[in-house]
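Q: Here's a chain of 160 amino acids. Please give me its 3D structure as tokens.
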Amino acid sequence: MGIAASELCRYVIRPTLLYLGRHSTTAETLLLGIAASQSGLGAALHDRRGHGLYRITEPRHQALWDDYLALDPERASLVRGLASQHAFLSSPHLELTVNLRYATAIAWLLVEEQAAPLPSADDLLGMARIWRQTFHPQGRLRDFTCAWQNCVSPLNQVAC
């Protein structure tokens, strides 16, 4: 059993996007769909495909820091501000599992790094394409839409 979609949105995704200055309904919806597709909204937080809600691999995490965030020290500092002070230094990839806001920021930056235009908030297939391009190149679009229907149904996201 994972996290309720409405609570994930309200207490993690929305505040993180606002903190990053990147909030939109589409961004919220996309991150909910990614978390549903990657981990069943947290039903499983670690496996061979990666860490945390978004199943981000260690090489992807490292590459984002080295190739994207290193070029923007202000944004890097903002993201680093979400990480645990001491734990991040000793085990930065563990933050992807235990720190939901940090993991959400990293997931969003992986999407942003791709520079794909965002679809409208109700375009699940458009979001599925971004998920596949960014997180799961071998994934099927229907994997995303099925995860959405199973984990982020309208009953689960009331008041999101």
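Q: Can you summarize the key feature?
A: Residues 87 and 95 are 8 Å apart (CA to CA).
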